[in-house]
Amino acid sequence: MPPDNRKDILLCKKDFSVVQLSKDINLSTFSCEYPEYTTFLTDNAPKLDEIGITTTYLVKKGEKTCAYFSILAGSVEINSKLKSLFPEKDFPPYADKAGTLHIHHLAGDKDFCCEYKHIISFCKDYLRAMIITRLMKFLNITFISLDADINTDENVEEKYKKSGFKTVGTSFELPFMIAPVFE
Ligand SMILES: CC(C)(COP(=O)(O)OP(=O)(O)OC[C@H]1O[C@@H](n2cnc3c(N)ncnc32)[C@H](O)[C@@H]1OP(=O)(O)O)[C@@H](O)C(=O)NCCC(=O)NCCS
């Protein structure tokens, strides 16, 4: 890989805000390297949010939409593979499933991704904080999960691995990956 001279978003988090997708936000400047991820945000996410399937958040720098992630509730099977990958988590034998917060879609704007690295870790940190400070009052969530879309970006599983996710199975024929909420 060529040297990565991009700025690290993890070192300048305060320059960015996270807001929930709403009708009054102009998405026309957002453009992802893969057009289907642009269309998902502009066409599908508003409808899926409205009918209560997903909840979509935008990462913004001022007025600019830099990235988005769309989430829903999920679960993961606690099998021998998961136990071997997360030996520090001492699951009792009768525990067969754990709750996840599932990242349904995540993507960065092309120009933003050329300027900044580590948007996956930024989103993961945001979701961990959301789970710990808000959701855990009502619901136990053990992992953040996602299906790594290797059909679109053949390197994306590696990127998620570097960002703290591990592959525990397959989902829709894609690597199903999880990262613990409590590390
Ligand atoms: C996928 C995406 C969100 C990743 O953004 P990101 O978090 O900024 O990813 P980075 O470029 O910082 O890469 C993360 C890590 O993987 C490493 N990496 C990048 N390409 C790699 C490769 N080909 N092989 C191995 N490691 C690689 C980076 O060096 C970095 O490692 P580091 O933590 O040691 O610095 C962004 O590229 C994007 O929006 N892509 C288009 C949409 C998409 O594919 N979404 C995901 C669908 S599941």
Can you characterise this structure?
The protein is globular and about 50 Å long. The longest helix has 16 residues, at 35-50. The model has no long low-confidence stretch (mean pLDDT 97). Helix content is 27%, strand content 32%. Strands 2-3-4-5-7-9-8 form a seven-stranded mixed beta sheet, sandwiched between helices. It has one domain (7-180): Aminopeptidase (3-Layer(aba) Sandwich). It has 183 residues and is α+β, with helices and mostly antiparallel strands. Coenzyme A binds next to strand 5, helix 4 and helix 5. Coenzyme A binds at residues 1, 4, 32-34, 37, 106-108, 113, 117-120, 148-149, 152-153, 155-156, 158-159, 162-163.
CATH architecture: 3-Layer(aba) Sandwich
Strand order of the largest sheet: 2-3-4-5-7-9-8
Q: What's the pLDDT, averaged over the residues?
A: 97
What percentage of the residues does DSSP assign to strands (E)?
A: 25-35%
Write out key terms for the chains shown:
single chain, 183 residues, alpha+beta, Aminopeptidase, seven-stranded mixed sheet, two-stranded parallel ribbon, 9 strands, 32% strand, binds coenzyme A
